Amino acid sequence: MKQPPLSKKITKKITDQALDAQKSTKSHVRRYFTRRIGRLAQSRRFVIGWTLLASSLILLSAATLYQVYTVAHTPTGDSGGTYTEGMVGDINNLNPLFTSG
């Protein structure tokens, strides 16, 4: 009796393992997903409640961070540049010590 070549043995072994994995995957999907999908409708209120809670916590955290940023952030000038001072209207006296009231 002639034995099949080694590559055919390996191919058959890999094919058998793939078929076993496929059967196992189908079984797990049926057990843990397909049969339980109907229960999601029953727990809709629970899921919606947790989703709203998580969403509100995220929004409140973002609002708090924005408030902290706006309160703590103070715009300041940058170093360098030119400072110019001016007055509006007529100038009577440049020295404030000699003003007459």
Structural write-up:
By secondary structure, the chain is an all-alpha fold. 63% of the residues lie in helices and 0% in strands. It has 3 helices and no strands. It has helices spanning 6-34, 37-42, 44-72. The mean pLDDT is 84.
- How would you sum up the global shape? elongated
What does the main sheet amount to? none
- Low-confidence regions: none
Order of helices and strands: HHH
Please tell me how large the radius of gyration is: 39 Å
The number of strands is 0
Mean pLDDT: 84
Helix content: 55-70%
Structural class: mainly alpha
Number of helices: 3
Give the DSSP E fraction (strand runs of 2 or more residues). under 5%
The end-to-end span amounts to 128 Å
Short description:
This protein has helices at residues 6-34, 37-42, 44-72.
Kindly list the characteristics that best describe this protein.
63% helix; 0% strand; mainly alpha
Layout of SSEs?
Elements: H1 6-34, H2 37-42, H3 44-72
